[in-house]
Design brief:
Two copies of one chain form a homodimer. Chain A is mainly alpha-helical. The first copy, chain A, has two domains: 388 residues, no CATH class; 136 residues, Transcription Regulator spoIIAA. Helix content of chain A is 63%, strand content 5%. Chain A is built from 26 helices and eight strands. Chain A is elongated and about 105 Å long. At the A-B interface, helix 19, helix 21, helix 22, helix 23 and helix 24 of A face helix 19, helix 21, helix 22, helix 23 and helix 24 of B.
């Protein structure tokens, strides 16, 4: 039962459901439905799909998440970045408007969903970690710029498209002279209205006595107002006949539920983009869920979230939708409006269904320019150039990863940008680990501690060299280790003992083991004993049965202090022998006292 | 001058050259020339090229290495694995026997050479480290198997080819019924003779009174004898007319020296295979050079070796040759025969030049079966299945990397195998680092040391939790860190202080920094102070100006002992306040004493 509850969180909160939580969740659902309608339509068009597909993707996923999700506030559905990635992937296989294009988008949702579910069951959530913070931040910023640039075409009534920000800007440059003035008036008017709603409306509402939270929520419904106003204007003035592009006939009725065709050849073709969409979507979704859960001390289970997000995408696919994920803005509205249980999401789905059943005829005269304007305003919040400055001041490699992600995304598009960012951050990490920090150690006087001779006032022994390598020993730095020890020995020709101090060595792989064997042999030829100290338990367990430990000329010590103490007295007793016994320690006979 | 000498080691040994070293080097050159002739021809044919190209690739590279190389004994030229990789890469662009195929092979040498030189100047030798020991061992074993299988066709007089071991075996299966008996007699006869030379001849020579080393060297000349014998047999019995495939006319004369065409489109196409050939060749070459140098306590400069090997390949390309590298067997012969300076290599080049000028007509009747036999015997030494067992017993991940490299190479060919091996070893490394070892620490009684509570008898304090993460904190484990600390706090609800003990933390990247900030905030909400101890110098330098250190609820301690000592007395004085002063520490009044 515990296991079933783990995979079906609905059993937990469903049992405690009552009329108060019900009425609360209903109000939340009404607000979120109003917020979702323009977003659903807009992101479907951003993904190159018919507007109704956005509505389809906003029903089943919400219900699936209500069943499987662990966050109380997360709202899933079409989001900007995943829609852009869908357009990029589907566009490589077919032209917009064809059934093949729609099929590719649905298949992307299906394959993403299956991948996410598999990752959840196999506990592969760690894959999401490969998207480092700088890469994801850079990617989201660049995607935001690309989406905003791409929507300038519809806003101005021109045809400016491209696979990347750069392509789009070039296309805009060539076509901007053909701006359609009436369209531009609607588009730019909507932009100004929506920016004003964001910046100017809230203080006004608060001044009129609204509570701050309520004002915040009302502001989020601004796009619905813009859409209603522009529909009325376009319909009233007959602007569609004057060249203003409108959404046109949106088929009503609920989507047909059907398994997408099991076209494995297609699935293999979209595997990489589907994986990227899955991971980007998951990272976005889990971050939102964790942030909101922390505020109310609720728990979110990362592995179960993979399953829930996967189920949401499979739900989207079998109801003819495209890839979805947890959106930040809508989840915050959900949270702020007081969603008590995931049922709020299910009720939102019902709201969207009612719209799909009865209100689609009203969308006929909706100008595409107004939808484009809602997208632009929504994605401007994604663009965060300050993060670049922050990264620069902390770490040049993190900055490089972020900058390359941004530049490649702007230049070559989303997939190339993500892959370049992930590849570069892994490469830079391995490069850094291949040249680890190495310190020669000395004893802090009066303590058992050994610290870097360059940073602290410490005592060293002439016959003993203690070297601490601040990294695991593994293939990228195995050769560096050999070089370092060779050089250290060359610089200290009088040493008899070399201690490799290993508190930072978390693993020793086969490559490093073979290098250590080579080092041991070479030191032996030079008359130097190799010792190890502060080897960690798990590392020692692995070394126990190796040739290295049998062939080691020296010993393995639990602590560096024990190592130096023993080797010191060993050296002293050798000194003792060489100098001919205790004589030198006695008071010489010539002493006048 | 020092800089010039660094890049031109010839200036160093050239100044000390005299008649004794000269005569010594001449004798070495004679022996190595005899060994190189059959190898050059055989590896050219293995690479799918005309036999004379092998001779071309054995002249200029030797002279270039003599000028730029730092090893006294390394002999460069065509080798088995690089020849196989050349065939795989050129075969993707053109058919064997066409001028385009030869052009691709020459371009591979050129691009490899330029890449190696660039890597040398940019000190990018660390790239070679990405080929971990298990991957390179697995790759060489699989390549050896593929080469041996591929030569069974010529040995049996059948046409069995393929891009991978598997393809070749399937092809052999289908064609073996067409075995040409006379060819097979020559081929298998050569094989038996060559194996006998390897195993049986040396003891015989030693019994006849030869010094062991001399016997070793004579054994290496066995292939020349096999070639002369089979030429005589084929020519004498007119076997070429009976269907035995012969080398045929080998154009005499020195190669024309000319820059290969600057065909950048072609160069881009072969960039990846050229890079793989460069790195595999370099790893092979530098290992041989280091092994031999260590025996005579000579120095080898890894970066200069990149330049030398690069110059050798450029030399090969401009004299119409294909990729070369330092070969193990021939370098050992060079070393054992007593090569005193790199001039021995230059004299070997002269020897090959004389053969090319005057002896090529003698090669007309050389049966291809005999050449194939020399290759099979040479590469069987590359196959080392024991390494698999060794890897299994030490580390399952290293074993997995080796096994996957072998299997993918056998199944899909050399490039796929190498890429899979390198990719998998990097992935496995990152996976391991993403779930690092974590230990809760306690104090070893009577010392300042803190060790894992699960492995040692240690003292812990009820209000303090000390956690040591045995890894650098960076993006693959940033989320794991958050999960770990959340769980640890949930399991220890009474703690007031959490100390993150960082002796194994070598870097903290931006992702981990942001995770630490989040952890600090969450712990603050739970009334727990976060402290850091044993933060290393370089890590502390980076943390100094960050938001984390300003917002940190606790302190940073130099040692874990200092941290626990201070927090203990802090907790004690709080206890003191709560329990109402010193009373509880006094003898209670009711005490009868």
């Amino acid at each position: 039962m515990g296991l079933i509850k783990g995979y079906l969180p609905i059993l937990e909160w469903g049992a405690k459901y009552n009329s108060k939580t019900f009425s609360n969740d209903m109000i939340v659902a009404l607000i979120v439905t109003m917020m979702l309608i323009p977003q659903s339509l807009a992101y479907a068009i951003l993904a190159g799909l018919p507007a109704e597909v956005g509505l389809y993707a906003s029903m089943a996923p919400l219900i699936m998440y209500a069943i499987f999700g662990t966050s109380r506030a997360l709202a899933v559905g079409p989001v900007a970045v995943a829609s852009l990635m869908t357009a990029a992937a589907a566009g490589q296989l077919a032209s917009q408007g064809t059934p093949e294009y729609l099929g590719a988008a649905v298949a992307l949702a299906m394959v993403s969903g299956l991948l996410l579910i598999a990752m959840g069951f196999l506990k592969l959530g760690f894959l999401a970690n490969f998207l480092s913070h700088p890469v994801i931040a850079g990617f989201i910023t660049a995607s935001g710029l690309q989406i905003a640039a791409g929507q300038l075409g519809p806003v101005l009534g021109i045809h400016a498209e491209g696979e990347s920000f750069l392509d789009i800007v070039i296309s805009l440059w060539h076509t901007i002279s053909g701006t359609h003035l009436i369209t531009a008036a609607i588009g730019i008017g909507s932009l100004i209205f929506l920016f004003w709603v964001r910046k100017g409306l809230k203080p006004l509402l608060v001044r009129f006595g609204l509570r701050e939270k309520m004002a915040d929520i009302l502001v989020k419904i601004g796009p619905v107002v813009a859409i209603i106003l522009t529909i009325v204007i376009v319909a009233g003035l007959g602007l569609a006949d004057k060249g203003v592009k409108i959404v046109g006939k949106v088929p009503g009725g609920l989507p047909k539920v059907a398994m997408p065709p099991l076209d494995f050849a297609l699935w293999m073709k979209i595997l990489v983009p589907a994986l990227l969409i899955s991971i980007v979507g998951y990272v976005e979704s889990i971050s939102v869920a964790l942030t909101l859960a922390a505020k109310k001390r609720q728990r979110v289970d990362p592995d179960q979230e993979l399953i829930a997000l996967g189920a949401s995408n499979v739900g989207s696919a079998i109801s003819g939708g495209f890839p979805v994920t947890g959106g930040f803005a809508r989840s915050v509205v959900n949270f702020e409006a007081g969603a008590e249980t995931p049922a709020a999401g299910a009720f939102t789905a019902v709201g969207i269904a009612l719209v799909t059943l009865f209100l689609t005829p009203l969308l006929f005269f909706l100008p595409k320019a107004a939808l484009a304007a809602t997208i632009i305003v929504a994605v401007m919040g994604l663009v965060d150039m300050k993060a670049l400055k922050h990264a620069w001041s902390y770490s040049k490699t993190d900055f490089a990863a972020m900058a390359v992600t941004i530049l490649v995304t702007l230049w070559k598009g989303v997939e190339a940008g993500l892959i370049a960012g992930v590849g570069l951050s892994i490469f830079l990490h391995l490069y850094r680990t291949s040249r680890p920090h190495v310190a020669v150690l000395g004893q802090v006087p009066g303590t058992e501690h050994f610290l870097n001779v360059k940073r602290h006032e410490v005592i060293t022994d002439p016959g003993i060299l203690s070297i601490r390598v601040d990294a695991s020993l593994y293939f990228p730095n195995a050769r560096f280790l050999e070089d370092t020890i060779n050089n250290a020995v060359a610089e200290n020709p009088d040493i008899k003992h070399l201690i490799l101090v290993c508190p930072a060595v978390n693993t020793i792989d086969l490559s490093a083991l073979e290098s250590l064997e080579a080092i041991n042999l070479r030191l032996k030829d030079s008359g130097i004993k190799l010792h190890l100290s502060e080897v960690k338990g798990p590392v020692m367990d692995k070394l126990k049965d190796t040739h290295l430990l049998h062939a080691l000329t020296g010993k393995v010590y639990l602590t560096q202090f024990a190592a130096v103490s023993e080797l010191r007295s060993e050296l002293a007793s050798e000194e003792f022998k060489i100098t001919g016994g205790p004589m030198c320690y006695c008071t010489p006979p010539s002493d006048p006292s």
